[in-house]
Amino acid sequence: DxxxxxxxxxxxxxxxxxxxxxxxxxxxxxxxxxDxxxxxNYSKYTNGMNQAAAMIAPEKCNTTEELDAWxxxxxxxxxxxxxxxxxxxxxxxIEQRYQKNLARLxxxxxxxxxxxxxxxxxxxxxxxxxxRxxxxxxx
Length: 139
Hints:
Blueprint: H1 2-9, H2 43-54, H3 64-81, H4 84-105, H5 125-137
């Protein structure tokens, strides 16, 4: 029973906003006189996450329309929760997953993009140019 803990740990605190209210319910002011009421409806922050979680995985999409809807939902969620400056880093894996599954739906072969982490890892001039191009994308 939570009431025993409320009585034990909340001694001396004003638990009810007024005498007519239920004494077991904390008042809207909180212990330090802070208004916590504004944070009580957290569902408005999780609606986008629930919608994205309900979306079918791109590997299970059977049409390009489903795949397009998946990508659109992923980007919408990023726009809702991620600052603009960091979105490009999160969009890259979404785009890669989209392209991979688009190739699957079209019965085409998909080549994983080459990620070169340093100039020393390049073996040819073409790889060095690709590395430079990747580097410029993030600047």
